[in-house]
């Protein structure tokens, strides 16, 4: 899913923000199950049809909450620097997001995704941001000879991202730059071409 078009009308911006604030309040107080079109309309004081106009389905509301909480608009690290530095820069940005409000949002949503199709859909759409970007960086590294040719990109991607989620979601620990640096050195190092 691509980023939504920016809203330029000031009144529409205020209404959108009021609904998003209501959704965030519902999420933080009652968890993802409470974030429905009806409840967002009630808490924000707008018509339910307006909520549907902004977010046609519930997964869209949850995805916007993830975007806002996780600052998921990750930009690719600069090209022309070594692969390990590019991966480190991207993972540090992801770690910063996980250390913030998005860590709480993700914790709640990942648990509920097992039973709620809308939450699962929102998390699936989120994958297009960080994981896909990392996969592209690793694939480019394999293509340009920075990585050993037989490197399993999907497995390497999982091994690099997985510990970040484990630190935040299971251990409830801050993900430090030193942790990311050690993770990249330990995991990516053996895959780098000599």
Molecular structure report:
There is one protein chain. This protein is mostly helical. The protein has 2 domains: 10-69, Homeodomain-like (Arc Repressor Mutant, subunit A, Orthogonal Bundle); 74-191, Tetracycline Repressor, domain 2 (Orthogonal Bundle), CATH 1.10.357. It has 10 helices and no strands. The chain has helices spanning 10-30, 37-44, 48-54, 58-70, 83-99, 101-113, 117-126, 130-143, 153-170, 177-187. Helix 5 (83-99) packs antiparallel against helix 8 and helix 5 packs across helix 10. The longest helix has 21 residues, at 10-30. The mean pLDDT is 85.
Distance between the termini: 38 Å
Q: So, CATH architecture of the largest domain?
A: Orthogonal Bundle
Query: Could you describe the largest sheet, including whether it forms a barrel?
Result: none
CATH level 1 class label of the largest domain: Mainly Alpha
Structural domain tally? 2
The ordered H/E elements are HHHHHHHHHH
What percent of residues adopt helix (DSSP H or I)?
Answer: 55-70%
How does the helix and strand content classify structurally? mainly alpha
- Overall radius of gyration: 19 Å
Q: What's the total number of strands?
A: 0
CATH topology term of the largest domain:
Tetracycline Repressor, domain 2
Name the beta content range: under 5%
Question: What does the overall shape look like?
Answer: elongated
